[in-house]
From TrEMBL:
One Pfam family it belongs to: WHD_E2F_TDP
Bias-annotated ranges (Pro residues): 25-38
Subcellular location: Nucleus
InterPro entries in alphabetical order: E2F, E2F_WHTH_DNA-bd_dom, WH-like_DNA-bd_sf, WH_DNA-bd_sf
Basic and acidic residues bias locations: 538-560
Family designation: Belongs to the E2F/DP family.
UniProt-recorded Gene Ontology molecular function terms: DNA-binding transcription factor activity, RNA polymerase II-specific; RNA polymerase II cis-regulatory region sequence-specific DNA binding
Domain E2F/DP family winged-helix DNA-binding: start-end pairs: 95-164, 240-326
Main location, first listed in the record: nucleus
Protein name per Swiss-Prot or TrEMBL: Transcription factor E2F8
Region (Disordered): 1-42, 338-357, 446-468, 533-571, 769-825
Length: 825
DNA sequence: ATCTCCCGCCATATG
DNA sequence: CATATGGCGGGAGAT
């Protein structure tokens, strides 16, 4: 009932204004002090802008502005017009006006995206609730999600610190890594397959096998992924509490980062998130609850512009889904150099740690924020396993750590550059960025050589990686950088199971590995054929002009990106699979049991430039830390002085741990500088050419990705793969945009190679992208999976991967295709 | 009818 | 014990 002044601002207006604002905002913006005067003119402006952004829900009538200072409003007012004939004006706090998404916008408007490090802004929940006129409960929802992204961290009761998006790049990177480790891709495939089966077999209950296997497969015991200096027991607050929403949020994000089309349907997400904990029992109510939560999370993520809502149409109908619109996860650009400079922290750490434990902690260098350690909450473990093993609780060497090591693997290598990575991402993404981001990027980039939009990335990666990595790898577990450009093509290398089992999954120790089981899954051939068409319509409701649409595509950030309202007609989604209801009691019991999972936290050891001892201490908490520290000793070089004995335990796993991803950016050409496990392996293991490489070459050539003459070096690191001009062109033309749109069809090649590790999957663009279609039309993406069973050594276990269909006999070529339709409004 | 998802009860955690 | 958190699911608004 408050007088709302709706700031009816035309989007256009806002857009225009953005330029002005952004420069101000983006860079180091001092931002307002929350307590003092939350509503700064700037903040208001910002808020409006953000609100205006496409993502906002349908006509945004946010009366929230009412509070805002008059001046700001006035400014806006001038511009205000109702355009587009939106009837806004409903003063009613219609339900929408109370939406979490809107609330989140308001919340975000209060703080700068990139607060200057010098001054921290604190968030006082009481103030926020009062100023935003919301119930406290709502704020928690927002804050929890923000916490999961490390955009804020809790200091104490009622008190949070605002970090803004500074940590986003690292966070996403870490999440992606964890997501890969968790094999979410496979899980998704499995779920889809299962659905498919269901279609054919109503009632197919017999899926039990699958279910069980699936459940087991879900290892996701993983817990909250933490960043460097951020979070972590700031005040005593951290203990380990629920965090379920936070964890859920992280997992949800992981799904996007991991999946190829970067589109995740709620249904799938819910199933995966549920399945994790225990054997799966699909309980309908549980499922519904999960969905509710996902909507909550999605609203916040949408406000952050990390995702947007779309609809996926499969044969059965349309299902709500979300598409990742956030920054691509950069490969780890580790710049040793930069790192070195920034790495101030290390010294302190090493110093302080004379003791063995501490040393161990030192293991992982934490340079830039990349290192994450897994901090297991021992408690949980204890329940499940520890009975026997115990005692060692904190000892770094304890088994727990191992698992941790796995996680750690990622971040370990030095990389720091928080900013640069971000830049790269931005570039890659290109258009999609918000204006602010764009500017930031520009600003940052200018100084450095980096600015090149596309190609720049590889070189950077290659060198640094090449140098450090090898050494690193040997020593420290983690370090595999994986280059991923967010771009379309990727080659994934999975660790072979054998090794993998041990090292690979973090959860491994605790639980039986899922992998093995997976194989058993029943397959439906039909699935292979299953097609999914993706269509996206960006246009806002009514608008559709090709030109416009195109423009929109190119520059998503402007208004067109997401119109607030997406009207989707929804065809009835396929009826959900039947879920068997189970007694809650049962579930609960299960849950309890599930508790075991060691929930670990990934804790980035790295410190910011100003490393603090304090952090170290906090870190020690996790047994993991020790390892990192040790490694740390020779952060830059990558050589680790650690005693072999200690390292071994840890290290071994590390090698396998990270699946190698080789990403080829279309633009960049086929060249993929990859630093990978393989190289590590090769170096450490033997000089012999990696068998896998030959297979890879074969495949690539076969497909035409690579000219016949060209060979992909066994050791990917440092090398660029020459690509024929043609291929390059093609890819180039297609551009990331197309890929995203789904127009391009590509093939995914997966090879199982016993020798190295596992399978490689490559995504290769088959066709050049046609010109973008009218946005309205559905675009179809076809994915073909070619699967080549690995060499002799190949393990069955991973086979399940692709679709979950049964294992393929060796030598068999497995080519599932599916079309995906995505529609947006 | 289905999709979204707000509201707020109430169990827990924290202080 | 008083509060602060946040899991959870009913049920209502939006489509």
């Amino acid at each position: 009932k408050t007088p709302l002044k709706q700031a009816a601002t035309s989007q256009l207006v806002l857009t225009e204004r953005q330029p002005d604002c952004q420069p101000l905002t983006t860079p180091p913006k001092p931002m307002e002090t929350p307590p003092a005067d939350p509503w700064t003119p700037t903040s208001n402006l910002k808020m409006l802008i953000s609100a205006a952004s496409p993502e906002i829900r349908s006509r945004e009538q946010r009366r929230q502005l009412s509070d805002s200072s008059s001046e700001v409003l006035q400014t806006k007012h001038c511009l205000q017009e109702h355009i587009l004939g939106d009837e806004y004006e409903k003063s009613q706090p219609s339900r929408k006006e109370k939406s979490l998404g809107l609330l989140c916008h308001k919340f975000l408007a209060r703080y700068p995206d990139y607060p200057s490090p010098s001054q921290k802004s604190y968030i006082c929940l009481d103030e926020v609730t009062e100023e935003l006129h919301v119930e406290r409960r709502r704020i928690y929802d927002i804050v929890n999600v923000l916490e999961s992204l490390h955009m804020v961290s809790r200091l104490a009761r009622n008190r949070y610190v605002w970090h803004g998006r500074h940590n986003l790049p690292q966070t996403l990177q870490a999440l992606k890594k964890v997501g890969e480790e968790n094999k979410y891709i496979q899980q998704i495939q499995m779920i889809k397959k299962r659905e498919y089966e269901h279609e054919f077999d109503p009632d197919g209950e017999r899926n039990e096998d699958m279910a069980s296997s699936f459940g087991s497969s879900e290892q996701s015991e993983m817990s909250f992924v933490e960043l460097p200096g951020v979070e972590f027991r700031a005040a005593s607050v951290n203990g380990r509490k629920y965090k379920s929403l936070r964890v859920m949020s992280q997992k949800f994000v992981m799904l996007f980062l991991v999946s190829t089309p970067q589109i995740v349907s709620l249904e799938v997400a819910a199933k995966i998130l549920i399945g994790e904990d225990q054997l799966e029992d699909l309980d309908k109510s549980k499922f519904k609850t999960k969905i509710r939560r996902l909507y909550d999370i999605a609203n916040v993520l949408s406000s952050l512009k990390l995702i947007k809502k779309v609809h996926v149409t499969e044969e059965r109908g349309r299902k709500p889904a979300f598409k990742w619109t956030g920054p691509e996860v950069l490969p780890n650009t580790q710049d040793t150099k930069l790192e070195a400079t920034s790495t101030t922290c290390s010294p302190p750490i090493s110093e302080s740690i004379p003791s063995k434990e501490q040393c161990s902690k030192a293991l992982f260098p934490s340079k830039g924020k990349q290192n994450f350690t897994r901090h297991s909450s021992l408690i949980k473990l204890v329940k499940s396993i520890e009975n026997d093993r115990r005692k060692i609780q904190s000892a770094p060497t304890s088994p727990v750590k191992i698992s941790a090591s796995t996680y750690q693997s990622l971040p370990v290598f030095p990389n720091t550059v928080t900013q640069f990575p971000a830049i790269n991402k931005h570039q890659l993404e290109g258009q999609s960025k918000t204006a602010e981001e764009m500017q930031t990027k520009c600003a940052l980039s200018s100084p450095e050589a980096v600015p090149k939009p596309e190609p720049s990335q590889q070189p950077a990666l290659s060198q640094p990686l090449g140098v450090c990595p090898s050494s690193h790898s040997s020593v420290s577990p983690v370090i595999l950088p994986h280059p991923q450009s967010g771009v379309s093509y990727a080659i994934y290398l999975h660790p072979s199971q054998a090794h993998t089992v041990t090292t690979y999954s973090p959860g491994f120790m605790l639980q039986p590995l899922p992998c093995a089981n997976i194989t058993g899954i029943k397959s439906n051939n039909s699935k292979v054929l299953n097609k999914i068409t993706t269509e996206e319509g960006d246009t806002q409701r009514g608008m559709e002009e090709p030109a416009k649409s195109l423009a929109a595509e190119e520059r998503p950030d402007t208004k067109s990106e997401t119109s607030s309202q997406r009207c989707l007609k929804r065809s009835q989604a396929l009826p959900e699979n039947n879920l068997i209801k189970r007694c809650k009691s049962d579930e609960e019991s299960l849950d309890t049991s599930s508790t075991f999972f060691p929930s670990g936290y990934l804790i980035p050891l790295t410190h910011c430039t100003h490393g603090n001892k304090a952090e170290c201490s906090s870190k020690e908490k996790a047994g993991m830390c020790s390892l990192q520290h040790t490694a740390y000793s020779s952060p830059i070089t990558g050589v680790i002085p650690m005693p072999a004995s200690e390292l071994k335990t840890v290290n071994i796993p590390a090698f396998h741990i990270t699946p190698l991803n080789i990403m080829l950016s279309p633009n960049s050409i086929a060249a993929a500088p990859v630093l990978s496990n393989s190289c590590l392996n090769s170096s450490s293991t033997s000089s012999a050419p990696n068998p896998s490489s030959s297979a890879l070459n074969f495949m690539l050539q076969h497909i035409g990705l690579i000219p016949a003459g060209v060979q992909v070096p066994a050791n990917p690191v440092l090398q660029h793969v020459p690509v024929s001009s043609q291929s390059e062109n093609i890819s180039h033309s297609s551009g990331s945009t197309n890929m995203q749109e789904g127009k391009v069809s590509y093939n995914i090649l997966q090879l199982n190679h016993g020798g190295l590790s596992g399978k490689y999957s490559a995504v290769i663009p088959l066709q050049q992208p046609s010109a973008p279609k009218e946005p309205q039309e559905p675009q179809a993406v076809t994915e073909n999976f070619f699967r080549t069973p690995g060499g002799p050594n190949t393990e069955p276990s991973l086979s399940a991967n692709s679709d979950g269909t049964q294992r393929i006999s060796q030598g068999t070529l497995y080519i599932p295709q599916r079309k995906l339709e995505v529609s947006e409004d």
